[in-house]
Amino acid sequence: MTQTSRARKFGLAVAQMGPVHLADSRQAVVKRLVEMLREAAARQATFVVFPELALTTFFPRYWMTEEEAVERYFERAMPNADVQPLFDAARELGVGFYLGYAELTADGRRFNTAVLVDRAAKVVGKYRKVHLPGHDDHKPDAPFQHLEKKFFEVGNLGFPVWNTQDINVGMCICNDRRWPETWRSMSLQSAELIVLGYNTPSWNIHWTEPVHLRTFHHEIVLQASAYQNAVWIGAAAKCGSEDGFHMIGSSMIVAPSGEIVARASGEEDEVITAQIDLDLGTTFRQHVFNFAKHRSPDQYRLIVERTGAGEPLPLPPEARG
Amino acid sequence: MTQTSRARKFGLAVAQMGPVHLADSRQAVVKRLVEMLREAAARQATFVVFPELALTTFFPRYWMTEEEAVERYFERAMPNADVQPLFDAARELGVGFYLGYAELTADGRRFNTAVLVDRAAKVVGKYRKVHLPGHDDHKPDAPFQHLEKKFFEVGNLGFPVWNTQDINVGMCICNDRRWPETWRSMSLQSAELIVLGYNTPSWNIHWTEPVHLRTFHHEIVLQASAYQNAVWIGAAAKCGSEDGFHMIGSSMIVAPSGEIVARASGEEDEVITAQIDLDLGTTFRQHVFNFAKHRSPDQYRLIVERTGAGEPLPLPPEARG
């Protein structure tokens, strides 16, 4: 590669994971992650996106006490002894990564968290999931639970953007991707690449939603959000059937044009890569999505002034026709 | 229809228009609109979405003075004598509509405007386009101009929501649809249906964007926005080749599931209809997009605090890894 192309091309990998069953040890999982990191590096990637809660099964589907969940599924430090081989391989290969896990803080708080790791295997950023889906009560009639609101607090770090490998990178997690506020908060900080992991059950426990729509919704929100925010997106699933509970795959890399440039084709461990062109995002930011020229924040105030949907605002006189 | 189904079903029509050439009179255009209104009524619709700037050619493509534009293309009142036949037909048939036009106010201000008209043919709402695309300078080397920033002021009425025909309806216009703030401002006011007209040139004058992406972007922003805001969308194009300048078609009705339930298949005058089920939006609003349960406005403040994209915010200490 010439110096010119190195300046704006970036080797991005998304490492989709097949299922992690209850019986799988963290050591076995980390071994799979290391294998995929090595494959990504061999394919010229310098950054790998791993899934949300990558180290364990998607435990919010099981009813248990917070104490049981902490004991089995949360990490007290990152890295820790179980995960160290992944950090060692990253340092050896000079590959950064995003990794999702259940975080227990020193003062006992619980978050659904992702870390950003640089090419020297140093943790340089942390994001805590803001949009926790699901419920906190036991639903004995549901085929499974979705207890993120029981096991996690709402993330308290906002939507930061970090500069790593000379790129402005933002992070989000799973359900965050359905909320346009997530993406806009980062594109307003000049994010060029936004990475996320997800565990998305194929069945909606709240109502009888056709199963194919679960993947469709994942696609349309990633495609539209990449376009509307002029960012590249790398999205990594943990998917397939974990002890009988199926989750969608379709890990993908999406361009600022909204086009899917790489996509996982199965529901097992699978690395997809692309040499992404960061100038593509710049072009969109200079024209159709030149925020400084086109946005009208004075007219967006309701977005921060209301949480839930409410009554229509009183009409300005001229809006009455 | 039973009383029960009448309560939540709504007959929606989108009236796509083929080209309006420079030589076409307003009277000829209104005759076409009346014909489509009659077809929509015959197909059990009680509301028709017409395009943006429906009464004339898409004049912002031509360089001229503001005075020339006002003289040829702006309306001093709505309705007026030329448009009265459309209002008369609407009253006769009991069909409401959305109509886009260039508005000249009594005090000489110019807006890209749409009116909301009820089943008694009374104007009950007015929206003025907020997100004006294009430029205000003459670009003699471009194949055509896009002078919305010259001919129009930024809309000054916010994003109101009106109750008409027992439904909460919001309006936006063309480029507004690319901006997630548009949709969210209305879904936070419990909009159930959002209607828009558009004139979208098939070529991007700012850079060499593949032509097929123009329709693709239109699709993904409508599909994702319908889903993310749990609203029905009716979107009406003026399309085809106006005096040699081509614009995209693909008028459509999109469900809160993000699915396209009706779509125009050509680039001429064409009415599409659907009996839309408003309960579908309610289901999404009660679960995945229950804003009160899931949104975190405190963490969205940048959306109103910044206009253009800027530097990443200082990192909270815990976000530093």
Shape of chain A: globular
Q: What is the chain-wise order of helices and strands of chain A? A: HEHEHEHEEEHEEHEHEEEEEEHHH
Number of domains of chain A: 1
CATH architectural name of chain A = 4-Layer Sandwich
* CATH hierarchy, class of chain A: Alpha Beta
Mean pLDDT of chain A: 96
Strand content of chain A: 15-25%
Low-pLDDT residue intervals, each spanning 5 or more residues of chain A: 1-6
CATH homologous superfamily identity of chain A: Carbon-nitrogen hydrolase
Considering DSSP H and I runs of 4 or more, what fraction of the residues of chain A is helical? 25-40%
Oligomerization category of the chains in this entry:
homodimer
Radius of gyration of chain A: 20 Å
Distance between the termini of chain A: 61 Å
Compute the number of strand runs of chain A: 15
> The biggest beta sheet of chain A, please?
7 strands, mixed
The chain pair with the largest interface is: A-B, 89 and 89 residues
- Determine the structural class of chain A based on helices, strands and strand pairing: alpha/beta
Indicate the topology.
The structure is a homodimer of 321-residue chains.
Chain A: H1 3-8, E1 9-16, H2 26-42, E2 47-49, H3 66-73, E3 74-75, H4 84-93, E4 96-104, E5 110-117, E6 123-128, H5 148-151, E7 161-164, E8 167-173, H6 180-187, E9 193-198, H7 212-229, E10 232-237, E11 240-242, E12 245-247, E13 252-254, E14 260-263, E15 270-277, H8 278-286, H9 291-294, H10 302-305
Parallel strand pairs in A: 1-2, 2-4, 3-4, 8-9, 9-10
Antiparallel strand pairs in A: 1-15, 4-5, 5-6, 7-8, 10-13, 11-12, 13-14
GO molecular function (chains A, B): hydrolase activity, acting on carbon-nitrogen (but not peptide) bonds, in linear amides
Organism (chains A, B): Bordetella genomosp. 8
Keywords (chains A, B): Hydrolase
